[in-house]
Design a protein that fits this description.
Layout (H helix, E strand, L loop, with lengths): L2 E12 L2 E12 L3 E5 L6 H8 L7 E6 L2 E3 L4 H7 L1 E4 L11 H5 L14 H14 L15 H13 L5 E5 L7 H16 L3 E5 L3 H7 L2 E6 L2 E7 L5 H9 L11 H5 L3 E10 L3 E9 L3 E5 L6 H9 L5 E6 L2 E2 L5 H7 L1 E4 L3 H5 L6 H6 L3 H4 E2 L2 E2 L1 H14 L16 H14 L4 E5 L7 H16 L3 E5 L3 H7 L2 E6 L2 E7 L5 H8 L3
Parallel strand pairs: 3-8, 3-9, 6-7, 7-8, 13-20, 13-21, 16-19, 19-20
Antiparallel strand pairs: 1-2, 1-4, 4-5, 9-10, 11-12, 11-14, 14-15, 17-18, 21-22
Helix pairs in contact: 15-16, 16-17
Length: 495
């Protein structure tokens, strides 16, 4: 097999931080290489070097056995590298075909766009990969999964030899993941190489030919598919063995009082008459397929979306018309998309943690900076948030540390009910285990949690009970002792 890419002693330094240290690996033509590592291990930095966003500090890049320099995204594109970023930025008000050929639209004599040729070129590309999409459809009308497919087709439309997929399945259902895998296999058959990055290690085991594992900016292991196991990959990523343990707390919870109650919650147009109870110290999971209405239940409770029905906290009927009302009543919320909805960008770790705790840090209308700093530092230590200081810009933290910052926000606020939507989405295996332990610790202290998760293993492992949703309704329920994957999938599929 001919080598397409070789990274030799690639090092990248930022002020005070060495993000990559003498990384060496090769990539063959038509090979799928999985790059694994915790958040902060250097995966994103490596992608940005190959994509021309960052320039390497030292080291050499070889492309088809010739030394090259990638100083800009255009340099990367000219070589034949297509990067599909996690947020796959597309122009939402343009059509599928305009997005794919943006900046290189076919023109007629006189400079007018040849719309028929553009549509035919787009349909040809889509058909090559078995994608059934209307070329004239506007991006804003597409599902997340279809937008992902458009981003991939855009990446391979440049005579691409290498496609880099960064967390491509973070918002996809299992059926949509299957379609993505079919496309990856077609790329491979065409001789196109793929670098695949995902925190979902199980899917990497299915699609990757080889694994390159980074830890703290250093390449610590390379494994062939036939020798790779989940335990080997995880141990190399975190430097220790991870033991998954679910905690059966059913006997303890039987004596706990019901602290929160939802009656006939409706959120138009999806959620219909959802009712449930939550005990003090309980973790209640909500599962179902994408589009079942899980997120809308949490958003409706928090007042982000207009809803009807009744909610009770400690026996008191609440009137929640806005997130401000919910926060004042004792609710905390960790949204699915922390970047768009959970973080205050450009602000410090301190400000992101203390923002919800105005009554704690303000006394007689004045900010008590000493209290704010002390309480924030307490949260940073409690959640093991890796940051040079509490004044660090939140945008410079890894995904896992950003997520722990949001958890610290609601712990500092002393919330009674914590609503978690995909709490470990885009979080590495080490940070994931830390978050799980924090969830147990919080419930041991009397806080109650409602958790939405698309990861069935996570849902069954962490929840004391699981509610199963289909088409906006609760169609089944399981306790931890009754946990059954087949039953869950049957109900979640509407069977």
């Amino acid at each position: 097999m001919q080598e397409l890419l070789r990274c030799q002693n690639i090092t990248k330094e930022f002020p005070g931080v060495k993000a990559l240290s003498e990384v060496n690996f090769g990539l063959n033509q038509g090979e799928v290489l999985a790059i694994c590592g915790e958040n902060g291990a250097g995966k994103s930095t490596l992608i940005k070097i190959l994509g021309g966003v960052y320039r390497k500090t030292s080291g050499q890049l070889f492309w088809e056995n010739e030394r090259v320099d990638i100083n800009s995204p255009l340099d990367s594109q000219k070589l034949g590298i297509g990067v599909v970023h996690q947020d796959f930025p597309l122009a939402s008000d343009l059509t599928v075909m305009e997005n794919i050929f943006l900046g290189r639209l076919p023109l007629k004599l006189g400079g007018l766009v040849d719309w028929l040729k553009l549509e035919n070129n787009t349909n040809f590309l889509l058909s090559q990969y078995g994608i059934k999409l209307d070329a004239k459809r506007v991006i804003s009308e597409l599902s997340v999964a279809d937008r992902q497919l458009v981003a991939i087709i855009k990446a391979v439309s440049f005579d691409t030899k290498l496609v880099i997929l960064d967390e491509p399945t973070s918002s996809l259902s299992q059926s949509e993941i299957d379609i993505l895998f079919q496309i990856v296999r077609k790329l491979k058959k065409k001789g196109i190489s793929v670098i695949y990055i995902s925190h979902r290690l199980e899917e990497l085991m299915e699609i990757a030919d080889r694994f390159a594992i980074l830890r703290d900016g250093v390449l610590v292991a390379e494994l062939l598919r036939e020798e790779a196991t989940l335990s080997k990959i995880i141990k190399s990523m975190v430097g220790r063995e991870i033991v998954e343990i679910g905690v059966d707390r059913s006997n303890k919870l039987e004596a706990s009082p019901v602290i929160f109650k939802v009656e006939n919650l409706c959120v138009s147009p999806i959620v219909k008459n959802v009712s449930f109870e939550l005990r003090k110290g309980e973790i209640l999971g909500i599962g179902g397929l994408v589009g079942a209405g899980r997120t809308e239940v949490l958003a409706g409770i928090m007042g982000y979306i207009r809803s009807s029905g009744n909610v009770y906290l400690n026996g008191k009927k609440l009137k929640i018309k806005s997130p401000k009302d919910a926060i004042e009543e004792g609710f905390g919320y960790v949204p699915e998309d922390r970047r768009k909805e959970g973080l205050f960008h450009g602000q410090s770790v301190r400000e992101n943690i203390s923002v919800a705790s105005i009554p704690i840090v303000f006394k007689r209308g004045l900010l008590n900076k000493k209290t704010e700093i002390a309480e924030t530092e307490n949260m940073v230590e409690k959640y093991n948030i890796r940051t040079p200081s509490i004044e660090q810009n939140i945008d410079f933290l890894s995904g896992g540390n950003q997520q722990k910052t949001i958890l610290g926000r609601w712990t500092m606020k002393q919330s009674q009910i914590l609503l978690l939507d995909e709490p470990t989405n885009g979080v590495d295996v080490g940070a994931k285990e830390e978050i799980y332990q924090h969830m147990y610790d919080l419930t041991d202290q009397g806080l109650s949690i409602v958790m939405v998760s698309s990861d069935l293993r996570e849902l069954l492992r962490m929840s004391d009970r699981v509610l199963i949703m289909y088409a906006g309704e609760i169609v089944g329920q399981m306790s931890m002792a009754e946990a059954d994957q087949a039953y869950f999938l049957e109900k979640a599929s509407g069977l």
